[in-house]
Amino acid sequence: xxxxxxxxxxxxxxxxxxxxxxGPGRSGLGELALRxxxxxxxxxxxxxxxxxxxxxxxxxxxxxxxxGTLFRDRLSASGVDLTGSVSAPEPSTLAVADLDETxxxxxxxxxxxxxxxxxxxxxxxxxxxxxxxxxxxxSLALVRQPGAGHIEDHLASAREHVTVSVDPNVRPLLVPPSxxxxxxxxxxxxxxxxxxxxxxxxxxxxxAGLEEACDTWHSAGARLVVITLGGRGALASLDGHRxxxxxxxxxxxxxxxxxxxxxxxxxxxxxHLGGRLDRLSLEEVADACSFATHVAAMTCSVPGxxxxxxxxxxTPFLSGERRFTKAASTPTLVTQxxxxxxxxxxxx
Length: 348
What we know:
By secondary structure, the protein is an alpha/beta fold. The protein has helices at 41-52, 66-77, 121-125, 147-158, 177-188, 198-204, 210-220, 256-269, 282-300, and strands at residues 10-13, 17-22, 34-39, 56-59, 61-63, 86-88, 93-99, 105-110, 134-138, 163-167, 193-197, 224-228, 234-238, 241-245, 323-325.
């Protein structure tokens, strides 16, 4: 049951990544100057949540190297609480981008034995006193060993007290899609919210349509499935009831973390985090997704992963058409799921 009256704080658990780029005009013969920007999907989500005004705590393993300091500074400057995070002797995770003449990037990752994947059961147990209404996690920290298994166990324990949100954020250059496919049912079991992209869906369930994918993940346990569709907005499925929410006049590819933050922020504001989403309606799902696409669009309107602050949000974000569907050809609000879409949670 949702905990009304409790602080609507969200905890994010996951990695930080230093996104590095060659600095044009600063490199010379025999040397290469790199510009490093703090990133990582979970860290970006935490920053966006805090900037929107949601009290946010980030649980991460910060290396004692120079990049660890960069990560801490960015999160703290955005208002994220780092209490409970771990100072780690292992190195930070690096992603080095090689830009071609068109500006397209090819990445090389330096992630083996990095601090982000070394979570222990004792470290995670120390975070259980957190009073948040939601725990969000995903991305590489949930799939890279040795820490991934401990995080899975932590989710199963945490869902007794909080809403659980998962974003697989598939990274095929680092982890083969088959590893995600194998583990995803274990993530859906404790998850109340599963947020992923259309590209993720194609890698996780090749050949499956969007609605078939939603039903598969409902059956595995996720009650609310939200698939972002780039410039086409987002499809949300609540126990098999669908809503398609268009995006503002901008492609939101590249702003998935900001979308997730907007979604969780709005659900918290509506009072639906802290339990199993029992009172959540499809209209409120559409409301939350509309807000999320607005946040994502604003993030895409400026360079870098630089999400907006609450005071910069325009108010008419809920304008625009919404299409409520049970099937693509039936533009009506669904009040009951069909029998083959019955929701079955894998974890009681």
